[in-house]
Design goal:
Blueprint (H helix, E strand, L loop, with lengths): L1 H6 L33 H18 L15 H4 L1 H22 L4 H20 L3 H11 L2 H4 L2 H5 L3 H13 L4
Helix pairs in contact: 2-4, 2-5, 4-5, 4-6, 5-6, 5-9
Length: 171
């Protein structure tokens, strides 16, 4: 299995031309002012995907066997799976805190919209782990109970949220 994986054409990176590299959405604010509202959702999704792709690529196939990440010696058996889990355990509460930290319902609704926009871009990038991180954050009790905030969502983004929920469903 390992030799076959190392020899796989899927493992080799494909060079891309400068024309294919997307232009970044650079924030115009100071670093201390960075937030969900100052970073373009597409750029946020891109950066999150770059970080998570590195973590994902580090996972060895044998780390996924026999629930290695939940065994007594999990640090030896599945260190890269644990790193991916740890990353998710940082991103999810951070996203939830971004929504609930604002006292203004209008700002909370804007942040909620940005989260859903980011999820749409994550889907375009095939970053399903990132979508699940955001989904877990937005389904967190502290966020989900903000009924008036959810009611302020534009219909387009409310439909996008419902569509993402449906596509990411285990059913």
């Amino acid at each position: 299995l390992c030799k076959a994986w190392r020899a796989s054409p899927l493992r080799k990176s494909t060079p891309i031309s400068a024309k294919e590299i997307p232009r970044p959405h650079l924030p115009t604010c100071r670093p201390s002012e960075l937030s969900m509202l100052t970073i373009h959702p597409q750029e946020f999704a891109r950066q999150l995907t770059i970080i998570e792709a590195e973590l994902f690529r580090a996972i060895k196939p044998w780390e996924l066997l026999n629930l290695s990440w939940s065994r007594k010696d999990k640090e030896q058996r599945a260190p890269n799976v644990l790193a991916m889990i740890a990353r998710s355990n940082v991103v999810t509460p951070w996203v939830a805190s971004q929504v609930v930290s604002s006292k203004s319902m209008k700002v909370r609704a804007e942040i909620l919209t940005r989260c859903i926009q980011t999820m749409v871009y994550l889907e375009e990038l095939h970053n399903f782990n990132g979508i699940m991180e955001f989904m877990a954050a937005l389904q967190n009790a502290g966020v989900f109970r903000l009924k008036e905030t959810w009611a302020r969502l534009d219909k387009k983004w409310s439909r996008a949220w419902g569509s993402l929920i449906q596509r990411m469903s285990r059913d």
